Amino acid sequence: ALQFQPHVVVTVDSKGFSFRLLKQLRARYNQQRSDRPVHFHYVAPSFWAWKGGEARLQGLSKFVDHVFCILPNEEAGCKLNGLNATFVGHPILEDVLELNMGKETALHEWKITGNGEDFRKKYAIASGATVITLLPGSRLQEVTRMLPIFSNTMKLLKDSFPELVTVIHVAPNQLVDNYIAKAVHKWPVPAILIPGGTPQLKYDAFNASLVALCTSGTVAMELQLARLPCLVTYRAHFLTEWFVRHKAKIPYISLPNILLDSPVIPEALFQACTPAKVALLLKELMNNTVLQQQQIAAAEKVMELLCPPNRTLNNTEQQGMKPSPPSYSPSMIAASTILGYKQR
């Protein structure tokens, strides 16, 4: 980077590596007393989730010039701690623009409706079958913890739902793929494996499902886009669980609940994440249309919160971009901010 002498340096997430890089670059340029590049970082640290998190923001302004925020509360928090920031919207919105391109829904709502009927036909699922989507995680460590819990949960549910079919979404990770492929040989109910990297098939499966059971993560936001009611679960190493219980300052783990500050999505976490508890919560959700509709209505609010505000769109328009799909995708707003930025 020093030899290339860039005008702008953009780092994305991975805050440990990114902040070390930006800090060292700024120090080198300060030593050389040469024109230094503007430093942008995409995805603000989750300062709002941890005790003392905002205090850690104060030192970032020494080597980060501007932060792109993906959640609505982050921009104000960054600015209060001396860090320039812009809320660009959540990256999950990019899925809407990609999969709904050319469809009327892209023009008026942030939603993805897959083709559940085609999915059922493709996999010969009986018309009376109850389909549950399972998303056990993307990393091998979490999948090995969560998949046995999911399996035992299905074993407890199969008597209540005789024609139960599970659709297991497999992350694009060879180790995860191998583990799940072996595990389904002893699966208690019929299982369909959906490979990672097939977004249209994924949303078709969502549309064919009654509910979803997922490990906490970005998938919870995908389920919001699909308007699929879900139950969020999570288990970790006991030291990680202890740390979260004592250091977190928010009562929820799933982003929709955090944004709404309400437990609209049931969560089974840590020691409470047992097959018996998960089966009880999932059965209640599957049998209660009121709970399902509450989640669907809440998803509308969540997606509204994740969209960039009008003032951001106005700034984008002033920089020569018309604020209409897909111009106001998070990536496009971030790009226009970089191109129009003048270091103060």
UniProtKB/TrEMBL annotation:
Which InterPro entries does UniProt cross-reference here?
Glyco_trans_19 (IPR003835)
Entry keyword Lipid metabolism: yes
Which Pfam families did the record assign? LpxB (PF02684)
The record lists the lineage as: Eukaryota, Viridiplantae, Streptophyta, Embryophyta, Tracheophyta
Q: Which UniProt keywords apply?
A: Glycosyltransferase, Lipid A biosynthesis, Lipid biosynthesis, Lipid metabolism, Transferase
Annotated protein name in UniProt: lipid-A-disaccharide synthase
Q: Which GO terms describe its molecular function?
A: lipid-A-disaccharide synthase activity; phospholipid binding
Organism field? Gossypium harknessii
Q: What is its EC number?
A: 2.4.1.182
What reaction(s) does this enzyme catalyze? a lipid X + a UDP-2-N,3-O-bis[(3R)-3-hydroxyacyl]-alpha-D-glucosamine = a lipid A disaccharide + UDP + H(+)
Q: Which domain of life is it from?
A: Eukaryota
Q: What GO biological process terms does the UniProt entry carry, in alphabetical order? A: lipid A biosynthetic process
Q: What class of enzyme is it?
A: transferase
